Amino acid sequence: MPPRMLLDIGSILGGLGLAVVAFLVVILVCVVILRLLAVILPSYEERDAAPLAAPEGPATAPESEPATEAPAPDASVLGTQPAGTADEPAG
After folding, report:
1. Alpha carbon distances (Å) from 21 to 10, 12, 29, 48, 65
2. DSSP label at residue 59
3. What string of H, E and C letters represents the secondary structure of 62-76?
4. Running along the chain, 91 residues long, what does each successive block of 10 average in pLDDT?
5. CA 62, CA 56: separation in Å to the nearest integer?
6. Distance (Å) of CA 14 to CA 1, 24, 26, 38, 85
7. Alpha helix (H) ranges present in 41-74?
8. Which residues does 67 contact at the CB level (< 8 Å), separation at least 6?
9. Exposure pattern of 40-72 as b/e (b: 16+ CB <10 Å)?
């Protein structure tokens, strides 16, 4: 009768050992998958900082080109002359 009891204890310990090894393998696989995802996907800091560092787009003129001013409105369209262009002095 005692040898049979040892066999039962051995199978219980073997089952527990197998469960511990399986648990560690699952944890290791999860760590590997998370590391691969961290390499593939951008981090939150980089993703949030990218729009802040990007220029406004077409609203900013490149430095190599001189900035052009909008032409003054035509006096005949407005019906009045622009300030300071009258033939007679104001007053």
Report:
1. 16, 14, 12, 40, 67
2. T
3. CCCCCCCCCCCCCHH
4. 68 94 98 93 75 60 60 61 59 52
5. 11
6. 20, 15, 18, 36, 102
7. 44-53
8. 61
9. eeeeeeeeeeeeeeeeeeeeeeeeeeeeeeeee
